[in-house]
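Why do we care about 3D structure at all? Because function follows from shape, and shape follows, mostly, from sequence. That is the central idea of this module. The next example makes it concrete: a single protein chain, its amino acid sequence, and then its structure expressed as tokens.
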Amino acid sequence: MTTLVRGDVRPGLTDLVMGVRAAVDRRVGWRETAVLVSGELRRHLPSPDVLTAQERLGDPATYQSHTLYAAPDGAFSIVGLVWRPGQITPIHDHVTWCVFGVLQGIEHEELYVHEGDHLLSVGVNDNRTGDISGFAPPGDIHRVRNSGDTTSISIHVYGTDVSRIDSSVRRVYDLPVRD
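And the structure:
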């Protein structure tokens, strides 16, 4: 397993780290930052090889998260997620803005809004290799799964150091879903 040293930049991430740093340093709101970081990820989307061969294997039991970079000041982090076919998150929201790009495979995303005692399904996205998306709370409730037949890999940029707080998830929802 690779040990993260805060501030160390993996090969293949230097341009992305510099671009995200510039976007974050503009000190605009979360939604605007997500838009700026989306542009940087679109310009500097790495290949799956940014993860080690071992990290790219995934785990048969659950999707895997690998912190690839954490800014020394805690302003952002870059995480690689590896999903085997069928692996899925619970319905959740986040502690901060997030931008993600699919490096390999397909990730099916279901979007929700919270309405009293239930969640309302408001859309779906099939994010394929090269697709970039982002969001900021509120309005970031979703569930993601690998809907393909092969391992999926995505890179996520979060507006916090997830290695310090252990997860980007703020809340998991266990409410009925209505269409």
